[in-house]
Batch of 4 targets.
Target 1
Amino acid sequence: MGKCKYGFFFFAVLCFCVGSSQNIPDDFKRISDSLINSGPTTYAELDVVLRPSRKDTTLMRYFSDIAGEKKYYSGQAYALNQLGRRYRDISQFTTAINLHQNALEAATTGENLEFRVYSLNMLGVIYRRKDAINSALDYTQEALELAETVKNPSKGLKRSINVSLNGLGNIYQILGQYDFAIEQFQRSLELEADLGNKWGLAINHQNIGECYELQGDLDKALEGYRTSLAINEDINNEKGKVICKNSVANVYILQDRLDEAIDILEPALLASKEIGDKHITSGIHINLGAAYLKQKKLVKAEDNLKTGLSLAKQYNFPMNISMANSHLSGLSENRGQYKEAMEYYKMAKEFNEEIVNERNLRYVNDVISRYKTEKKNEEIEVLAKDYEIAKIKLRKNKTSLLIGGFGLLLLAGIFYILYRQYQLKNDKKLLTLEQSMLRSQMNPHFLFNSLNSIKLYIINNEKKNAVHYLNKFSKLIRKILEASSMKEIPLAEELETVELYMNIENIRFSNEINFTIAIDEDIDVHTIKIPSLILQPFLENALWHGLSPKEGEKNIDLHVSRGSNNFIDISITDNGVGRDAAEIIKESKVLKRKSVGIEITKERLANFARDYQNTFDVTIIDLFDKESNATGTRVVLHIPTV
């Protein structure tokens, strides 16, 4: 019903705009005719005339229509992009995308590179707001690459390059690559300073503040937000001021400066409603709810959280939905309504996992489909070359033997193409199964970050690293898929799989991890069967909780030995900070990494042991030196072999 309602609204606006052209002021008609006759082609030339009217959708629709009729495509692209921005600001993303796509078509038809880049950037911004990261990255990269083809770019193109850099920074930020994001934002800051664009400076300082907040550095985050706020106040940008104030208040909530946060948020809420940006309004309501919840003002907290949740659901803001449900879970727990608290918690977790899994699947599809497309193109190229050779030979020798040979070659080519089509269909079916198994067998954080690392290598044109990393990653995925179809596998294959996993993780740890596998002489790893994919969760735990916060040498040792009474012992030992320190570090983080992989593995081991009419045991041992200082953790799996 929601889509129909907005579609009807947009149709009504169109009809009103088209049917009411006679109500367009004569002054604006004269301005439009003058622009069409003079035909300026740059954004700056058009904006200096139309800037006072660009937020008026009726006037922009009129100018777009008349420019299109007169085939003045630069003017049409300008007007359609302004309309798209207006609809984006009130969260009507589908309508905004259609308008920017039409602007891109107009700019392409009119061969106006500046407006092509501008339209691509605007599409990237909307898809980023919709959490469609892959599409956002494609549009933003295309815009930047197109703009950089010009040796001496105009001022308008330079601004578009800054928008692209800012967009890439935002995408890196969403992907959790905060250092890369800050690097892009700072590069954009320098270019914005050269252009004297205060609005661009404000946006980049705001984004840098967000990265520091996500890294847990709240002081630097506040510095970025306050700098951005000062610039926005200087240029009197109402929307920018509201965004900055909401961000400052969010940091105050994290610092338990609740009264200060509420004093900022309440007037900011009124301002956001006047602006009409539902995404900002939803976020402010949720922050107010969080502040009141910490103050134990549960009625006010509930009102704001439910209002923010309602807006997030209405306009489809998945991250806001997850945050609101998470806070409502805490509110219900405060009231002793534990069943309701659990329901809200489940909804928050469901939306959070949905966002992560959706991004993972998009990246899987993108990497694999592009790889297969390249292979297919290469094969077609080879076939085309073979066909040309055959044609040349046929021209030289028109004997029946060569004609017959050409016929056989052509027939073989047809059979080969049919065979390749059959293979590709099977590969497509297999890919669908692979994606399903990936979601159930591999930790989403590992999959997401590994694919992101490949994407970063590709973006930074590090082809050798990308191919090397992709080869290792694809081999690991293949082994996981093979193992996931079997209830149990030889221990040798499991060890090979975890070694691959550790190699990939070690790339992301800058090769700081020393990983060794030791097997006692009386162990035949090829005959011992164990459940597939049971060691990776314990290695991941050692990496992220034991070794990640540790300075200096980082070791993980895996040892396979003969246990008692037909058991084998697999021990995983790390020299990390220990469980107590890891728990303290985890609690101090703003963003907490959660995993249920070990619990799932224990359940699978229990099922495996029952098949042998036996038991299993997982022992976690804290290691200490002589002075009782933590020196690491050892996990011992006691697994039956008969």
Target 2
Amino acid sequence: MSSTAKFLAKRQDREDGVGTNKKPRPFKKQDYQRLKRKWLKKNTLFCDPIFPAGSKSLGYKELGPNSSKAQGVEWKRPKELCANPQFIVDGAKRTDICQGELGDCWLMAAIASLTLNHNVLERVVPPGQSFSDGYAGIFHFQFWQYGEWVDVVVDDRLPSRNGQLLFVRSAERSEFWSALLEKAYAKLNGSYEALESGFATEGFKDFTGGIAEHYKLSEAPQHLFKIIQKALGLGSLLSCSIDGTSANEREAVTSLKLVKTHAYSVTGAEEVNYLGRPVQLVRLRNPWGKVEWTGAWSDNSSEWNNVRPDEKAKLNYSAEDGEFWMAYSDFVRHFTRLEICNLTPDTLTSEKLRHWNYCQFDGTWRPGSTAGGCINNRATFSSNPQFVIRLEDVDDDPYDGEDGCTLVVGLMQKDGRKDKRIGRALNTIGFAIYEVPDEYKGRSNVHLGSDVLLRRGPVPGSNNFNSMREISKRFKLRPGEYVIIPSTFEPNRQGSFILRVFTEKKAAASPMDVNITTNIIKDRITDNDVDTNYKQLFMQFAGNDSEVSVKELQQMLNNFVSKRTDIKSDGFSRETCYHIIDLLDKNGSGKLGLMEFHKLWIKIQRYLEIFKKHDTDKSGTMSSYEMRYALKDAGFQVNGEVLQVIISHYGNKQQAIDFDNFVGCLIHLEILFKTFELFDNNTGKIELDILQVKCKC
């Protein structure tokens, strides 16, 4: 499918609600219900052709076909591994997740956190699946991927060795939901090996569609406790951990019974009155269900004796095994890092919780058109995609006591794990936020240029870069209009991204780009305007019929450019000459008469002036970044998407456009605009039958 067809299909799907959790997109077009019915009717078990039981699904290097780790692997169904397999035994719990021979502990931590939130778990692991009723060897799971939910089907052939599961397994040998979930996630990312190494928040995002914040507790911001409270009130998932200083400290237990390199959940944050003074407390949960903090404010500590009974009851201070309170001051001293996963409104079902407001945008960085690099690249930075957000209402109950608008911005690059197989590394990405100048506020038909951006600095803290799947940061800004510019650090780096913005109050956000318009100069020429020089030039190339054919026009134009040293050209193509005649031929002869030729020559001279004016580096070619302004000077205002198409079609390998391609582009654009105007009934849309398409394309 072409990129245009993909774009139109995706837009239609969004209008139909495809890609929401209620209507997830079937991954690789595999519809679970249809496939299940098919294989039940065949009375045989499903075998997945897309993620087959073989070496390709295991991996490509450490788990590649010839690797030692892949030797002796057998793919077996659960009924071949135990007598009475079950999907879930007595509810999903932390002990259902035991890591195998794959370095995906980050994924195990995320799955373990899923078991603490039943509503979120059921979004990822659809209920009603089993190895008995309607069993056909097929299961399905749902994940959030770059702005939409997808439904991934798998068969239940699992990699094993010597009768034991090779990767994740449950402590209950007959339970298989976690192993099948891991397989579905491996399929989504291309292989099991693609899951090596990561952060728990990556799993959080793919299980919830949320956006993550990371805090190093040794550098905790002044108001972090209030941020935690507000996050819990918004239904966010919070996780914390203690770094180990060596590999030997993996899950080592401290003297106060805290476990290193182990993911805890943060489940509460309250303030109590203790001996006449307020004390900030946080509640943590150890997913193990045992090994609890024994320091101050632990379940049976003396501090609770000095808390009023009503406060004590409100806090439920003696919680179930594995859950405990500790002073916030001890929390930031003993723990290393905190991760907050803020959830989208559709994830939260409780009416008691307030919701974030949320918007997201897809985008691409294309070398030569929209991959301008960071602000260090002064000439090209402004060519990056731009998105405007309008903040009007200040937060309720601000965590720092000062009025302002809180927003969390996340920039995620796509397909990093899939691209591991071909050795492609993640781009170094970041975003800059600028306040929109007064003269541009309220305008939608605008793309801020380097002249505007370079004379004003970005919002503090918004210009950091990292080679991670997603970077995110919390900001508090005064009401106003801001433009967010996502970019790679270096220019001309190919990539696709999703930009997400969470705000406490409703805020309008949209892509910031110019409308597609045209203002072509119409040359009105009479016989008196054609001087002797033009007639001589025309007769030099015209045939006996006193008209210039395609072949003759090509010869004339190539003769013209061959004599110039200030522009580069590899010669006008026949296609360009056909387009020129198609545009200017008024009598349908397929050739140019004297008056038509005169109009062409005026155009060529005008295009030459524009070309030289915008060839600022005097290279004799038009760089892709110079092209935007050259097109505008020629009467064509195009947005980023159209510019990408132009560069890919007319640019060379270095995304540079020589003079003949520059002329060809302008001629083709003029034809397209005139065709559109011909069929447009002032609606901004046209309908063409197949004959009109064939005649006008």
Target 3
Amino acid sequence: MSGTFDVPLEKKSYRPDPSYRDQSWLGSYDEAYKRFLDDPEKFWADIAGELDWYRPWDAVREWELPYARWFTNAKLNITANCLDRHAASERRNKVALIWRGEDEEVERVLTYRQLHRKVMRFANALRDLGVRKGDTVCLYMPLVPEHIIALLACARIGAVHSIVYGGFGAAALNARIRDAGAKIVITADVGYRRGKRVALKTIVDEAVVNAPTVEKIVVLRRTSPSLELFSEMEVDFEEIMEAADPYCEPEVMDAEDPLFILYTSGTTGPPKGIVHTCAGYMVGTYYTTKYIFDMKDNDVHWCTADPGWITGHSYIVYGPLAAGATVLITEVVPDYPDPGIFWRIVEDFGVTIFYTAPTAIRMFMRFGEEWPQKCNLDSLRLIGSVGEPLNPEAFEWYYHTIGGARCPVLDTWWQTETGMHMITTTVGEKMKPGFAGRPIPGVVADVVDSEGASVAPGTGGLLVIKEPWPSMMRAVHNNDERYRKYWSTIDSYYTAGDLAVKDEDGYIMVLGRSDDIIIVAGHNLGTAEVESALVSHEAVAESAVIGKPDVMKGQAIKAFVILREGFKPSEKLKSELTYHVRMSIGPIAMPSEIDFVDSLPKTRSGKIMRRVLKAKELGIDPGDISTLEE
């Protein structure tokens, strides 16, 4: 079998108290999965039937490889499900959103009724600025309630939102604005991080130069005295919302109308704009929030991600709000003002579902058990991880120290492209450290060789999804060839780009990327984007970057740089290049190491062979190098 390898597997496992499974929405995994396999379309129709629709669907699914349509010809608005149906019910005065600022004294709370009213006003404010169904709005904001209000307002009027993480620099923001053709940019004067102000508006000012589609910049002013708005393009967030009409009828959307574009890194070329549509994405995120997170009406749900990543879209906003959850958001980072801040927040707000990244868990491990032990974490019911594989050591610490050896651990595997959870250990089932778990009911996943044949337990191969699912991406913006590649690498299967192995019980362990994506602290970065930033510096003739294992971040970036004539290697130049990448892309992309080299391993066609660099760096066999130029 080509493309496979043997992997030694651990046998250790834990099983939560049986009451978890008995009281869960999903119940027995085996029974739920059988229900799905017996009649997949009925399975998804039953889930969708729990939500509100203006017009029902003609068919649950239409599939013509590689294109899918879900809930065809149905009419809906996702915000009617996230807001209106709760605001018109006994949940109207339930807390929808809790926000905690960096200053632990600063808090805001919005009920479903209050959030609904603010979203309607801001939706009308966007309409007053000329935003119409199908227009694209770019959000570049800190994690404040207005961020959630703005993205829901876009969805309410049928505008396509494109959120850019507030840690990206001006060049990265400009590329995303231009590719999406954004009409409006919504930002804030500043964000706060580790006690310092991050000047977001300044970055936007630079990013909108040479962005001809941008007509207006909406600015949330947080500082005092208020930032002065100079140009005719700039308007104040609060002022336009206050001036808008209070009631906004939801735009009636077709099931397959686009909901948002979210950029994720590609291995070559610019970032890919992943397009998700209204109905399938809504059903997938609602289902996984309710049935996989087992969301109950009295839960307080804290996903520590940012809306700039798919995790924030799916499990801060759309899934939890569709399920009627209470959602906690905060600007704080895990180690400021001290490493106990997250645990104080869990205690203060009685968080019951905590969802974070393995990077953060490893950071907590480094600080030791004393910080969580200072707080009462008894409110926690479920703890989850997302963004990269949760290594067995981190699982053990998380399960025992944070979960008190009682909370189920949901190590979730999914992607920007999948929109929702795909593989995990469902609530109450046996957990195996190092293994994400099994495909959730509704998903058909497998580990295969390069020909698409299933591999034996203990044999590594490629992770694939064999059947379409509702929240799957529908396109790569302006790049159909790139979209088709997901389904053509191995004929008729969605190829995730990850290496994996399964055991005798069908549990899947994800081993890492099979391509040139680097996952730093749970964030996907393409080698091409970082290399492009390096080469844009006047001293750099050529560059290649790789991901190296890192105890804290999962992977760290190492760069290999060929200098132009007239420039000499120095520590000062390394610092300059690191800063240059920071300003071009953002802090997340900064190389932790830079080596100055005279040449790079390339194929005869000129493609840099990064795996050769990586193999040399890690002291392992580089495999077939017959295509090398030298």
Target 4
Amino acid sequence: MAHPVPPARRPELPPVHGALICVAAPCLVISPEHGQLTGHGIDGIYRSGRRLLSRCVLRIGGREPVALQGRSLGADRASFTATVRIGAEPGPDPDIGVERIRHADGTERITLRSYTARRVRLPVEISLATDLAELAAIAAGRGGPELPAAVHAGGLRWSTGPAQAVTTAEPAPDDALAATGMLRWQLELAPGESRTIELRTSQDRGARAPAGQVANPLAPARAECDDPRVDPWLRTGLDDLGALLLRDPEDPSDAYAAAGVPWRCGLAPAESLWAARMALPLGTGLAAATLRVLARTQETGTGPGVGKIPGPLRGAGPQLPPGCTGTEATLAFPVVLAEARRWGLSEPEVERLLPTAERCLGWLRGALSGDGFLADPDPGPRRCEMQAHAHRAALLGADLLEGCGRPGAEEWREWAAALRVRFADAFWLDGPDGGRPAAALHPDGRPLPRLTGAAAHLLDTGLLGGGRLAPGLLDRIRSEQVARLLGAPPMDSGWGLRSMAVREPGHNPFGHHSGAVRAHESAVAVAGLAGAGFEKEAAGLLRGLLDAAERFGYRLPEMYAAEQRTAGSAPLPHPAACRPAAVAAAAAIHVLAALAGIRPDAPAGTVALAPMPGAPLGELRLSGLRVAGEPFAVRVSRLGLGMVEEASDALQLGV
């Protein structure tokens, strides 16, 4: 009798929650907290997805320094502090201080400082190696063996096929030993004196890898708030988002945000568009470039896929099959274009991108199932968030068409109104507690009765002309019920919104769609609740998200565990989460703009303010924003009253 063959195990991603990650895309450095790159695991210096250096072990007097602290100094650099005892003085005190500043561009400065009372002679060794493996192979556990080194120009060189890496040192080492991959110095330090060794690792024979390859199009916004944590959260998000920007190989003048490091360092259409949308208060440059990049990928010609923006499948947890990120990106395209126009995207740029948006809407019309819902994929489940995305695309697409003098606006508004009726009939599950939306409908029409974080998208509407918000997919009564559900303990972990309620079958506090807090969904929930007038629930989730940001050093990971918050507890990291991640970095921008209630209409020359009542974070001033291409600043008082402090002379304050 044949025994069943067990399914092949998928390789596990190496844990990175304790790593210090420096990024200036496409440059990336992953370091353990002690700073020594040991040649094991995923640690190393990378460029364009290839590991240039996997081992960089420092020894002083034959000893490895005692690690004291590793900390991030910004998106692109980290500091590692250590000490060494060489026996120069009696007692337990360290003799030598060591500081290593490591940059994403492959540069490392190692500074040794003497604490002794007499001159000392220090033998210093740095052991170097690499496998020149691709990040994807390393993540799957298929990193290669260390390659033999060759001495090259005061350093070492490795090569295999077309790939090569060079590490040079300044000052030049006294010895460079290719057989052991060792650089050696004999340094003398007087009392209190310091000496620095600089290492440069690159692909091109020792030249410094360029950092900041993309000019950051985001305005340098600042926040002044009664809560002192708000500004570092905003600044860290801006820093991380700028560090994730990549040039489009097809047109290097256009840049987009990579989804996150270390696992998704390339174009992810849905995440890149979401990040660009959330960053619109900082200017329309990133949104315009991202839209242009994706417009070049849109499917053309004939067939059912015409008008769709392609994208990979993404896991949806144990309850549903993987969903297509291309579907989400296609629905987001007209939304981002319509909102970018309201924030001040130039009319020529809108006209240039409008045909792509029209094709996206045309694809939506042809992709609907016989029941009038959008299946993902077809035939497949009708996910509630996809219906929300389709509804938003229809309403903002109609606003875009009407504003640009194109036909079809009224038909899309009628379709959206009909979808609201169909959704209420098919997705809403009545119950004694007021009911809930189903997470999805199976192809046969059966609902999946799970309460998930995807319900937050039902409250996410969109910006229309005149400072108005588009109506949501739910009526007011059902919106109130969803707000209560999102703000209750089964969904609100105290650190943000769970991706699935704690009492649901299959709940896993670490599950990326079955319980874990996803920073993007939490930010969408806060903004949607604030815009719909549910201040209590919005304020609760906002405070939890800000508390979590503080515990993570203001660099929120894309997701983290949804263990219930208790006195003295801290949010638990997810071992495989990207950090930084584009949508998590943009979360601060999104929720603060929603808190201030900024609703611009650049084509009409107006901007309206609708601050969240109650001022949950106290008095708030946001400056350095961009509306209609000009600097914009707004202040919200402790009473929740908004005032524009700086704006273009062409803008008038709307209602």
